[in-house]
Amino acid sequence: MSKAKALPLIETDVQPCCPPLNERPLTADEAEQAAVMFKALGDPVRLRLFSQIASHTDGEACVCDISDVGVSQPTVSHHLKKLREAGLLTSERRGTWVYYRVAPSVMASLAQSFSASR
């Protein structure tokens, strides 16, 4: 049995990256924005890091808690940077550690992109 739980939404007024994919064709700008997020999540290491952060207690994780993904620490840092640049993660330095969270509306935005509108 899975212990997965739904993350609470922090923002109630979600501004998705794009409309549901089956609603209408994406504009060039919408496709560009969505592609940046999907490209960042298209790497297996990045997807694992994103999943570890999203499913971590309280929805945030210290870099020290998520570095066991089969690559070196500098590579983990590189992948976390790419996820931040894509707008998927936010980070906060606390002392010597950096804590990561999924950006507030990302999960809802991604889910809405794939929701059926018809």
What's the arrangement of secondary structure elements?
Layout: H1 28-41, H2 44-55, E1 60-62, H3 73-85, E2 89-94, E3 97-102, H4 106-113
Antiparallel strand pairs: 1-3, 2-3
What does this protein look like?
- The protein has 118 residues and is of the alpha+beta class.
- 40% of the residues lie in helices and 13% in strands.
- The protein is built from 4 helices and 3 strands.
- Helix 2 packs across helix 3.
- The chain is elongated, with a radius of gyration of 15 Å.
Question: Which architecture does the CATH hierarchy give at level 2?
Answer: Orthogonal Bundle
Taken as a percent bin, the fraction of beta residues is: 5-15%
Q: What separation lies between the terminal Cα atoms? A: 32 Å
Q: What proportion of the residues is helical, as a percent range? A: 25-40%
CATH class: Mainly Alpha
- The radius of gyration computed from the alpha-carbon positions, rounded to a whole number of angstroms, is 15 Å
The number of helical segments is 4
Considering the chains and any ligands shown, give keywords for the structure.
single chain; 118 residues; alpha+beta; Arc Repressor Mutant, subunit A; three-stranded antiparallel sheet; 4 helices; 3 strands; 40% helix
